[in-house]
Model the fold of this input.
Amino acid sequence: MALAEGQASPAPGRRLKVVALFFDVAWFQTQLDERGLSRVSLAAGAGMNEADLALVFKDQRELSAAEVTAFAELLGATPAEIAEHAGVSTPVPGADASETRLARIEARLAAVEAALARLAR
Done:
């Protein structure tokens, strides 16, 4: 990896952490495709509406910590991986177990509600 002019090299044996400057649409789409998921299902699982998810994919809306956690569960990634590919200002959820558990429950509930809405049509 080339360093920008004036940028210090990392200490020997340490790697530079690379974080996406913008939302990495290609990476997220690959994760969805590998799991046979659609953007609609990602939005429902994260408790978002489709319009909000579209804004995220256009890098016009940031993800919340709870949404990062839900994306991680749905895409089989760590919250840190999601945050790295979602852009520089994306929060990485803390180690607060109750917040993480609540986010999982909310994501599952949203997925169930979306499935029920599809069945009701």
About this structure: Helices lie at 25-35, 39-45, 50-57, 65-75, 79-86, 97-120. The chain has six helices and no strands. The two ends are 52 Å apart (CA to CA).
